[in-house]
Amino acid sequence: MTIFMLILGVDPGYGRVGLGIIDFDRNKASFVHAFCFETDKNLPFSQRLSLIFDEIDKVIKKYQIEALAVESLFFNTNPKTALFVAQARGVILLSGVKNKIFCFDYTPLQVKQALIGYGKADKKQIQQMLKFHLGVKDLPKQDDACDALAVALTHAYTNQSLIC
To answer: Which end of the chain has fewer surrounding CB within 10 Å, N or C?
Structure first.
């Protein structure tokens, strides 16, 4: 049986959203595309949320995404920022649900454990493992795009069965 899946990983935010797409086939992951989407800080917050929804929707349709993997929130300092990011995360998940694809949720700890096997890995270690697992020499320069690829790869390797 062949497993083939296009996975969209998302590092949620409201100013910048990291997006990473991988192809997972026969236990091998390959890089498809990664980038960051930014919203204008001068726009009303509700309009920024609408732009995020539209961008995720566009990417899902363009690449025919089959699974959406989103990093869960981890904030221990600023509750106001956490609230805004949570709202952005909500529209990201809504876009997946509206497109009838499965949505999955991964904590930063799960991502680190899936890729490194160690929950306190740093960004450099994660990026080295991304290069190795995706078979690429270079990664996107934005950390958010790399984080999104890591979330997508985590889904590919853990194949979690819980749906958001």
So the answer is: N
Residue 128 in domain: yes
Q: For 47-76, b where at least 16 C-beta lie within 10 A, e where not — what string?
A: ebbebbbebbbebbeebebebbbbbbbeee
For residue 83, give the CATH number of its domain: 3.30.420.10
Residue 164 forms part of a structural domain: no
- Which among 55, 71, 105, 147 is annotated as catalytic? 71
For 76-129, the three-class secondary structure string (H helix, E strand, C coil) is CCCHHHHHHHHHHHHHHHHHHHHCCCEEEEECHHHHHHHHCCCCCCCHHHHHHH
Does the annotation mark 71 as catalytic? yes
- CA–CA distance, 47 with 129 (Å, rounded to integer): 36
Whether 66 is a known active-site residue: answer no
Give 72-127 pLDDT, tens digit per residue: 987 666 788 889 999 999 999 999 999 999 999 999 999 999 999 888 888 899 99
Is 84 contained in some domain?
Answer: yes
* Higher-pLDDT residue of 119, 49: 49
**Parent domain of 80:** 4-158
